[in-house]
Design brief:
The chain starts with 15 loop residues before the first strand and ends with a strand. The strands form 7 sheets. The protein has a 4-stranded antiparallel β-sheet, with no helix packed on it. Strands 5-6-7-8 form a 4-stranded antiparallel β-sheet, with no helix packed on it. It has a 4-stranded antiparallel β-sheet with strand order 9-10-11-12, with no helix packed on it. It has about 350 residues and is mainly beta. It is globular, with a radius of gyration of 21 Å. It is built from 1 helix and 26 strands.
Length: about 350
């Protein structure tokens, strides 16, 4: 018998980085961030963990930025530079649905208020929308549309893209925050799309740097967005008009979210951390989120911290609780819809951590 006839081959669906044989089982780790266990006799494969891994167009480790918690309070989704989507179950911690064939890196995702659709920002400037039904492992693409094109930038895919997107509270609109397309453009823009036919409703122009955060008012009429400078601007969602006096006009307007690190309710998060000589600057806080009952504020920073404050946090002396676990900068944080958990996304560590709020 030829030795070739005695060799068994097992398909793991990824690029293998490590293997370990023990008691008739093979433990496999992949470049894509998954750990699997294969029973040699039966050939059955058990997925122990399905996470995010390296960027597929190079051996660059890639980053994981995109994160959002579902309105159904049972799931959360993440996307990364590895061109994949992962939907995890909050209680079981298992990856219950995935999509591995995004055309480019992805840096942001957002659940529709009905919890059945997930929008994903693709690095080339396109938006893909997927349908998800709890109990099903399938993510089915239902739409794809695009206004901005970043593939012509000289350093693409390491340049350009859409870093944020967020559905309006009424579900009728989707706002996206982009980088500049070059071509003498001055900065990023916020585009607002109708969700019934995925057509462009308005474009909000006035930023002088890439747009990093986008937040809606609860009545779905207005937006606030901040950029890399950082600068906080206000908009009328339906016509894209900039509200020059927006800070005053909307000071009493209830926000559906407050993700930016710019503004009165979050000004106290920019501070000197214990053990550090210098104070943070405005670029060190990557994302904020407010608990559903508006009692707590969580932030993720460039020093690997997930920080918890009382909300609003208006003074640098306000009490803070700092939590570590990420080995890289924390690019995204989100409360679960019931406020019982916080999810955090590391950048280079490609890790999603789940925290229990006591």
């Amino acid at each position: 018998m030829c030795i070739r006839d005695r060799v068994k081959t097992f398909e793991v669906g990824g690029s293998i980085r490590s293997v370990h044989l023990h008691d008739g089982n093979i433990l496999v780790g992949t470049f894509e961030g998954s750990i699997l266990e294969i029973n040699v006799q039966s050939g059955q494969t058990e997925v122990i963990m399905m996470g995010h891994g390296g960027a597929k167009e190079s051996r660059y480790a890639g980053e994981t930025w995109g994160l959002d918690t579902s309105p159904d309070n049972e799931h959360y989704a993440s996307v990364g530079d590895d061109r994949t989507i992962r939907v995890h179950h909050v209680e079981s911690h298992e990856c219950v649905a995935f999509f591995n064939e995004l055309p480019h890196r992805a840096r942001a995702c957002s659940w529709h208020p009905d919890g059945k659709q997930l929008a994903v920002a693709i690095h080339d400037g396109s938006i893909m929308v997927f349908e998800f039904h709890p109990g099903s492992s399938e993510l089915r693409q239902v739409a794809q549309f695009q206004k901005r094109n970043f593939t012509q930038l000289p350093m693409f895919p390491n340049q350009g893209g859409i870093d944020e997107l967020r559905f309006s509270p009424d579900g009728c609109m989707l706002a996206t925050g982009s980088h500049s397309e070059g071509k003498n453009a001055t900065g990023g823009a916020v585009d607002v799309w109708r969700t019934d036919k995925w057509t462009l409703m308005s474009s909000c122009k006035g930023h002088t740097s890439f747009v990093r955060h986008v937040d809606w008012t609860v009545d779905s009429q207005y937006l606030q967005s901040s950029d890399g400078n950082p600068e906080l601007l206000f908009w009328s969602a339906r016509d894209g008009a900039q509200l020059k006096g927006g800070a005053t006009m909307l000071k009493n307007a209830k926000r559906a979210s407050f993700s930016t690190n710019v503004g009165w309710p979050v000004q106290g998060v920019i501070r000197k951390l214990p053990g550090f000589v210098k104070e943070m600057d405005m670029t060190d806080i990557n994302m904020c989120d407010v608990s559903p009952d508006e009692s707590l504020l969580v932030s993720g920073d460039d020093f690997g911290n997930v920080a918890l404050y009382n909300y609003p946090c208006t003074n640098k002396a306000d009490a803070a609780a700092l939590y570590t676990g990420h080995s890289s900068f924390v690019m995204n944080v989100k409360f679960s819809k019931d406020g019982r958990y916080v999810m955090s996304a590391g950048g280079h560590d490609n890790t999603i951590l789940q925290w229990r709020v006591n």
